[in-house]
Design brief:
The protein contains 4 helices and no strands. With about 80 residues, the chain is mostly helical. The protein has a domain at about 30-75.
Length: about 80
């Protein structure tokens, strides 16, 4: 049986909430996500669709994508 542990929620400062908020990762293509996050380094799309910050054509299941997402989350 799996053991579940609680974790602390991540919430942006109220002044930054509008810039951080994003659509769910599975309702936009990579191209749409790139467009939505363009010029907004605070968009959570950089965390949930990290391939948008890698070269076009990067396999979305490549280790580099997960590493990019983890690094972006740490910076947030």
């Amino acid at each position: 049986m799996a053991t579940l542990h609680p974790f602390r929620a991540l919430r942006p400062h109220p002044d930054a909430a509008a810039a951080v908020a994003s659509v769910p990762y599975d309702v936009v293509s990579v191209e749409e996500a790139r467009h939505l996050a363009d010029g907004n380094p605070r968009s959570f799309l950089h965390v949930i669709r990290p391939e948008i910050d890698l070269p076009a054509g990067t396999d979305e299941h490549a280790d580099a994508v997960y590493e990019q997402g983890a690094e972006t989350l740490r910076r947030f």
